[in-house]
Amino acid sequence: ATACTIFHRMYHRISLKQHCVWSMAIGCTLLAGKVEEEPRTVRSIILTFAHMYRRRRLRVGDDIERYSYGAADCEATNAASLTNDEKGNVMRSVKPMSMGGPVYAEWKETLFDMEHVILKNLGFTLHWIPDSHPHKFILYFVRVLEIESKEVAQKAWNYCNDSCHLDLCVHYEPEVIACAAILMSSSNLNVELPIVPRPWWEVFIGPDRNWHLSLICNSILAVGDENDLDIRRSKYAFIPSLMEKPSFNDPDSYLWSVAD
């Protein structure tokens, strides 16, 4: 959640044409570990993103025969001819890259460059982010509402995770997002919460927030609509950058040519 918050806040300050989402994502992941005081090694971050890079180029888990993204298709040459099992075998057969090789050096340089860019744009002030996640309000609100079902809290937590796909953290306070998550969870599980003499959420976020709750709920629910081609593409496919010059891992890059 911390990495996602940093990511969304960065793109509210800069354009997608300035830095690609891949370089931004790996930089945010490195910084999130430091902010949360659970740092990850540079090598583990690079290997994880390199693995995701291969998965998306192969569109692992996607139904290539049923879904086509038209001109937006950007995949490995053999992606369409392999079954999901064969793609899995390809993924398992890839050996971890050498720390002394040019491919690792390319990822590492991008990671450190982006870390500096993020810190500079956000004013080196990230310490407050871990305390601003909606997850932190879920258990407290559920306890106050005297909800006995653990499923409500778990499902609300899952909705908060889904909210990280969107830039809701930039537009709304975390407690409002938490209330929207509990509202969807309780409704889905048929758990009745007090509406009179006033809706339960007004105790936590005040009056006149119904419209905001509705917008948040609709936005989070839309994330699960896999019939939407834009949503499917964001989950399974490689999305090239919008930069004028190709990014470090775009189809015309060195990394793309050696990824197979």
Question: Secondary structure elements and their pairing?
Answer:
Elements: H1 2-11, H2 21-35, H3 42-58, H4 84-93, H5 102-121, H6 135-144, H7 150-163, H8 168-171, H9 174-188, H10 202-205, H11 210-223, H12 229-236, H13 254-258
What does this structure look like?
This protein has helices at 2-11, 21-35, 42-58, 84-93, 102-121, 135-144, 150-163, 168-171, 174-188, 202-205, 210-223, 229-236, 254-258. Helix 1 packs across helix 2 (21-35). By secondary structure, the protein is mainly α. The mean pLDDT is 88. It is globular, with a radius of gyration of 21 Å. It contains 13 helices and no strands.
The number of distinct β-strands equals 0
Radius of gyration: 21 Å
In DSSP terms (H or I, runs of 4 or more residues), the helix count works out at 13
Order of helices and strands: HHHHHHHHHHHHH
Percent of residues in helices: 55-70%
Shape: globular
Mean pLDDT: 88
Q: In percent terms, what proportion of residues is strand?
A: under 5%
Give the N-terminus to C-terminus distance in angstroms.
31 Å
Give the low-pLDDT segments. none
Largest sheet, strands/sense/barrel: none
Structural class: mainly alpha
Concise synopsis of the structure shown:
The protein has helices at residues 2-11, 21-35, 42-58, 84-93, 102-121, 135-144, 150-163, 168-171, 174-188, 202-205, 210-223, 229-236, 254-258. The protein is mainly α. It starts with a helix and ends with a helix.
